[in-house]
Amino acid sequence: MLRIGSRGSRLALTQAELAADRIRGPGIEIALVPITTAGDRDRSKPFGQIGERGVFVKELEEALLEGRIDVAVHSAKDMTSTDMAGLVVGAYLPREDPRDALCGASEIRPGMRVGTASVRRRAQLLALEPSLSIEPLRGNIDTRLRKRGERGLDAVMLAACGLDRLGLSAEIGHRFDPVDVLPEAGQGALALQVRAGEEELVGGANDLETARRVEAERAVVAALGGGCLAPIAAHHDGTTLTALVADPDGRWVERRAGDDPLALASELAAFAE
Question: Residues with catalytic annotation?
Fold first, then answer.
């Protein structure tokens, strides 16, 4: 029996099923094991107060290390930029749409009230339109879509891939070109994490091109300081790796593009301090 660990939200379980479908084969029995993470338990504090990166993966990693599960399924964007000792990403599933999506409006207009808990999204939205009012908004996708109406927000900003996976593409009014809003490192990809030495459990599910791009993105973030709370983004479009550091209020945005993650990080390091 192969035990696949996942967060318990509707999206997370849908993603775990996608992973199970890629792994499943003759004689392979699979059990899904829902696990509650720190990010699930505390839905009121901003991410910065509970640790923005890694708050949705720590408990899954502990379950792996303790042998309670055999594979952990993560949204790659939720992972820290470096692997926990004893664990590795054994596979990345083929990447889906990495872009950020605006729900509730078809464009950004001056003075809009937009909900998001992401400092990366906040910074880039304000850089596009400084008159926006960016309001903290947490919860799963269904909750955030509901709160948009309850709080009278003009729009909320979410990852397009999550909406697509849940059959909620009709909620999307606009998908941001990465030229305007650079995605989070790993956004759109699912990572299958295993104990070091057990990569064969998921190796057949690995998409090499997705792995190449996401590992380059994670390398930039790691070199820039990993979980630091400065707005940082990295995205590889298949040809070019682009990285970004921004002021939290969008007063400036620095982008660099190239092939070498360490070189890009070195150029941006002064702005991330």
Answer: 78
